[in-house]
Every structure is written in C-alpha cells, then in structure tokens.
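If I may wish for something, please walk me through the protein I am sending here so I can picture the backbone:
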Amino acid sequence: MRRVLYLMRHGETLFNQQKKIQGWSDSPLTEKGRRQAMIVREYFIKNKINFDGAYSSTSERACDTLELVTDRDYRRIKGLKEWNFGTMEAEHEYLNPLLPYEDFFVAFGGEGELAFRERISNSLVKIMKEDQGEVILAVSHGAVLRQFMRQWAHTSKVDQKERLGNCCLLKFEFMDEAFKLLEIINHDYSAL
C-alpha cells in the first residue's frame, strides 16, 4: 500500500533571525515563523490534505509549528531532533565549516553526520511501520530534512541544491519499507 509522509521544517525562530547555530538548543518562533506555519496550514486545507498521524521533534520550535499547522493530537519523538552541534550550539553561524559538515561537530561533543542520518532514518521508518495511517505529518528541522533526502537519494529523482527554508515540506511516498521523494514544496514567504 502506498502511503505518504510530509516531512516539514519548523518556522523561522529567533536564532534563525540572529544567524545562530541551532541544533539541540532551542529558541522560540518569530512572528514571521508563526505566519509561515499558517500559510502551510492553509495549503493543507486548500488541498484537502488530512493527517492520520502527526509527530514532532521534542524541540519547542517544531512542536509550536505543528500546533499551528494542524489541530491533531501528536507525539513528540526524540529521534526527530536536529543535529547535535555540541558546544557549537548557539554560536554564530560564521563558525560553521563549509559543507559537507561530515564529522566536524564530533570534536565539539556533537554528532557525526552518518550517525545523525541513521538516527533520523530509523526514527521515520519506525513511525511509518507503527502508524498504519495513509498520510503522516512529521515536523522537524532543516538538517533533518537534508540528511533524510540524502539517505533516500538513491530512490528519488527530485532534488534541491539550495537551502531548505523554514516551513519547507518534503512529500515522500513510503512503500515496501522504502521512501521516495515525490515533491519539494516551498511556499513564497517574501511578503511576510
């Protein structure tokens, strides 16, 4: 049976505005971030997309985004948290190395890239195996979306090299325990 996962990045946060590294550290949604989430909510309503199950990272910014997008009950999943950047958390983004990060953050007490990717993939596969609903929403983080795309690049023809912005949606098909990226949905938030 073909099922669908919408994997969504949270709305803009204070740290996003301030250009701070934000992994396991957290900061609140900005007014713009809340309005971004409401645009996505309207997209789901307009397209008659109803969720059978909803999940969020345990980070406040992801939970707050999900609560704006849908009124459904949801489960908080630790495995959907952002990359752990160790002591680089809340530092200015100019301290980030050039991409790809690989295992750069391990030296600062953070996660290695492949360990992070495996955590994300295992969490989302588990969600889809346990929740037999046809349409599932998971709200998470930018690096989560990117690493999950990389994990399933071999099954997908859809790609985006540019940054995955706040409230970006990745629509995946899930069948035979494999994901296939069907669509990347970027709304225009330039007027916000």
In short: The chain has a mean pLDDT of 95. The longest helix spans residues 113-130.
